[in-house]
Write the structure tokens for this entry.
Amino acid sequence: MPETYFITGAQGCIGSWIVKALTERGDKAVVFDRSDDSRRLSAIMNDDDLARVHFITGDITDGVAVKLALSDSGATRVIHLAGLQVPTCKADPVAGALVNVTGTLNVFEAARTIGINGIVYASSAAVYGMNDDDVALDESAACSPTTHYGVFKRANEGNAGVYFLDHGINSVGLRPLTVYGVNRDTGLTSDPTKAIKSAVLGRPFHIRFGGATDFQYVADTAAAFIACADNTPEGAHVFNLHGETVTVERIAQFINTSSNAGLITFGGPPIPIAAAMDDSAIRRLMRDLPSTPFETGIRETMDRFAALRDAGSLDTSDLTL
């Protein structure tokens, strides 16, 4: 039977791909977002599927609004993605805390009040901070975040644990790092996707960091969130997500080779987050999660951007740094 999913922040990158996947398999997506701009959804969804999405405009920091929207949605599953990225949290930590921490508490409180017993939410590999060892981190690794964003995400994981202890609410927090694909257009780790878009447009672009990063195709990220929402295990869990650990140099070279141009450059300090995640824990629990090779994901992203370019609907506002 079709299920109804309540998705916060679904006008963002990962959220848009979750909505796409859910509607394509026949489920109902209820989008709760402060923005009513559906450009990201339109970029990857056909008109018929988009017409079946239900939109509720609201602020995640407004607990009453969140509770009312969740109650009215009729949803039985919750995927919470609303949040502010690293640069915004650095520039305005108070706003970052309100959205990322208070907003998450509002979702858990709404679910508790209504009687929904499972929440999947976006944490981040930013909870770890930098790691000097050349080994993949599993969930037992120490968390020493070096950004407000990472601290906020770590607080959410702790609060999710308390909601299970106090109220029996099951939850899964997922920790992605550098997600790429169409609609990834905010935050420092969006630079590889912007580089792909720029190459398709024949424009130069400089990726502002170097080193290596854990690089995951957005369709795979979305699939992990949906799998956890469909089968939320008992308890308060956090899981790493892993794509491939790839150097930025290799990413830039592949984009340049694929576009037959040398328009993409890179350079700058590595992202202050460990570059390799061990995702064996979630893969033991959730069988058959997709794992798209980065070459395939980049080619698919280039093809999607090219189709949008040819249709005259490719948004380039994110390319102005």
Q: What stands out?
A: The mean pLDDT is 96. The first strand starts at residue 4 and ends at 8. The longest helix spans residues 93-114. The radius of gyration is 19 Å.
